[in-house]
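Residues determine shape. Next comes a sample protein:
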Amino acid sequence: MTTASAASPSIPAAATHGERLRKSPGVCAAVDAMVGELRAASARITDVRPADPALKVSYDALMKRAADVRGRGLLYPYIGSGLGNGALVELADGSVKWDMINGIGVHFFGHSDPDLAALGIMSGLDDTLKHGNLQTNFEAVEFSETLLAEAKKNSRLKYAYLSTSGAMANENAIKVCYQKHAPASRVIAFRDCFMGRSVTMCQIGDTADYRQGVPLSTLVDYMPFWDEAAAERMGKARYIDMALQHLEMLLDRYPGQHACFIFELVQGEGGFNPGDRDYFKTLMELCKARRVAVWDDEIQSFGRTNRMFAYEMFNLGEYVDVFCVGKMTQTCATLFTEEYNPKPGLLSGTFTGEGVSFRMGKRIIERLRDGNYYDNERGDAGLFARHHAEFRRHMQAMIAKHPEWFPKVMDRAGNEHPHFGGVGGMMKFTPFAGKKDKVNAACKACFEHGVVLFSCGHGPYHVRMLPALPVLRLEDWARVFACIEKGLAATAT
């Protein structure tokens, strides 16, 4: 369903003027015409191309204007033209690139998607852009209903509170945990976690650079994240037992003072690190026994793993008390169980989002639900798993062809790590021994050669990808890796 007319049934006899406007044949025809123009323009973008020399002066001027208002230049010389075709994006300098990061996964269905564009055009008729807690149209409720319908299938989550950013969703989550377990004031998080850049969240996130100059007022204790290499070396049972002892030590050191344990089941900024069910289950069971909230942060991983929710992939939904989602969903949300439903007044705010964000978020969840993207109960691999396998196949071929680009990858503890990994639509690879300067240089060189990538991790550092898997074709990986190979070659010289 990709046109306004296809989405618009006949107007019922009892209808508001607003409903009559949105279902007006004239409006639907106009939306269809605009989407048709979009399709025609988008179809002209078929492959990577260099910048147009005639646009260099104007593009440089745009970059300067951006730097002047920000106080520093953009990390990448990326300013879009407003048009793309699936996994390909056109920039304002006329160049076309494979977009394999998608705004850190925000536009998971790629660029210029006709279905989502139709919703955006229709949303231009709304009486207001922003919706809030005091006054809202019904789209916010429909989004929440759609998200909760999927979340409830394998968890106890029951309610959703909407917000405009992932950091704010996390702020709401920590308030819910604090209130439930007052006067507990400490939180537990995994090493290398990332929670956002608000005053509280930057203190919880395990990156010192992101909290320079911020007074430290949040009490945080850190647990080791799952380390497959260490578990293999020590034996999995012993490794998990040592982690359990570490958690018990923290809980005993500060009895009754921990409000929550924040779980990233697949770490994002920390290095695209998938966890382990047995490891998580053991820690969550102790949290339950000691009355510590289990908070699952899936703001970056939602929708990208081999199941829609990472807690489904690990079969851990029964343990989750509080849950956060964002990025792909366009509107961010904090979900919680009946037991964690907060008292009136704790959660509020002027804005919850926009009608366009609610409509698109709802449609994205519906498309994830109805597409053949995820592994099924029989164990058949979904499209995302097949994409991940294709990524790994091309990585193996590149390492075999250019072993000099892929020396051993050692972490700070002296453990050796594989050269690529991740899960589903969260993919990483580690060239040049994971050295920060070389990895960042590789990302920028790849950008110049036609593919948008980004880094993650805290040493070793990795190149990460969050590709638009629903619209990327399996056969496109060869074209993407041809650009990556050129970028790495330029970095290696």
The chain has two domains: 44-112+384-493, 130-370. The domain at 44-112+384-493 is CATH 3.90.1150.10 (Aspartate Aminotransferase, domain 1). The mean pLDDT is 95. Residues 365 and 384 are 15 Å apart (CA to CA).
